[in-house]
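User: what does the whole thing look like in 3D?
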Amino acid sequence: MAGKVYLVGAGPGAADLITLRGADVLRRAGIVFFDALVHADTLALAVDAEKIAVGKRCGRHSTAQRFINKRLIDAAASHAVVVRLKGGDPMLFGRAHEELQALQEAGIEVEIVPGVTAALAASAAVQVSLTRRGVARSVTFVTPRTAAGEPQHDWAGAIAAADTGVIYMGAGEAEEITRALIAAGVPASTPVLVVENASLPAEEQTRLTLGDLPGFAAGRHAGPVLIMLGRVYGDAYAAAKAGARAALG
Amino acid sequence: MAGKVYLVGAGPGAADLITLRGADVLRRAGIVFFDALVHADTLALAVDAEKIAVGKRCGRHSTAQRFINKRLIDAAASHAVVVRLKGGDPMLFGRAHEELQALQEAGIEVEIVPGVTAALAASAAVQVSLTRRGVARSVTFVTPRTAAGEPQHDWAGAIAAADTGVIYMGAGEAEEITRALIAAGVPASTPVLVVENASLPAEEQTRLTLGDLPGFAAGRHAGPVLIMLGRVYGDAYAAAKAGARAALG
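Assistant: Here's the predicted 3D structure for the full assembly of 498 residues, as structure tokens:
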């Protein structure tokens, strides 16, 4: 059998924030390989599938990745619909490249189903636009996390040059992040909004300034953490919160 | 009646790339105000709703926006579920801020349902990660379009500082975009990928270099256009295409 492998974005967390297409592919799946952060309710959409956890934590990346690649290739020999389910979107910090390449080299057809990335769910919850007109017309998404042997890149400079910045996978590195951003010219007074577990019941929003970021986080939280910064999280955020409170009565 | 207004991201184009939550809200809607770029099949999900086109084109922004705000507020007086349906995601170049503010000032409850933004759908179609490991760890989304009276901002500098850049709403301004990016230090040899109508049957991918961008586009295309640039669209794109062709036999 020549099965097809779907790399599917599960979205930010809540099970109903997957796309209709993603849900349909899950319903048809014979086997699903899923990341640690995928919600149980999302997995439950795959009613007929064998479900296999392949969540990897940093540090043991490359071995785990080769193992996942092999399992995906093997699965396509015995299942018509194979799903690789990833938190968020596969093409934005989703590490899809290695899997894509391995599958293509093995001659297996691949389709990618995009997903809602966490920053958009966090922005929806906060009700502050990443690109509020008159304040922000550019937004940069980065991760400061690099694997062993990867070249350094100037993620802090990329944030400094944009109106709004969003840092993925920065939990537990608040001190290094703050130091790098300040060295790149981001003022310590820059408004910061930390959103944990965006779109889930355990969602938390914490507003602070860049200078106070090192005092935050480190070890407190199990779920995904977004560090968002820029002028939009200053007065606009405060006004939006006041407005939402007024609207709720 | 105190209705609730939902700002819903319709996703990049294809009707099945809306979220389950977005589709559910549309099914329950009594009235839907939709943008010009929302697909007819997406609208059809709102089986019981009155549907009102409020697509605005640039140039007459502020008048049109005040009118939309007023209609949303009025609609909440007579409908339990009011949907404002926007292409892509409401919080990323979705101009949600003015509507949010007007609704909050009117004491109306608002919920935002995030959507898949066009750049993620384009990346899925192209099968090239925006943040391919070892090549790109930062991605910047900008629009060069500013409204009359808005302060200038250095969108080109923000692109220059990131590994991957995505320009929204740049169609018809290829020459100015190219000039600004080159002035900001982006080499003319930088690989560019233009994706039109991402996720729709009319989707087109064109690969070129930044230096050749002014010769492209201008007036050729009706749908939304994304200009994507960076190293990931160089050899990686070519390799992915070759791999996908091999996989398809």
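In plain terms: The radius of gyration of chain B is 19 Å. Residues 61-75 of chain B form the longest helix (15 residues).
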